[in-house]
Amino acid sequence: MITPPNGLILFVLGSLTGVPMKEINREIWQFCIPLSVVMFLMIFFPAITLWLPRQFGYLG
Does the pTM of the predicted model rise above 0.85? Predict the structure, then answer.
């Protein structure tokens, strides 16, 4: 919920807490970078995402 197009939650959070958007964005980057790395790993190595379903017997 922190990255676009779901970034609307950041505006809601800013209005509820009174914290400026600039400060929220400064703190959120530490979460966006690992999320992006994991996303690229799943794109380039799809077997990572299929490992757990295959452990439960999915053969597709």
Answer: no
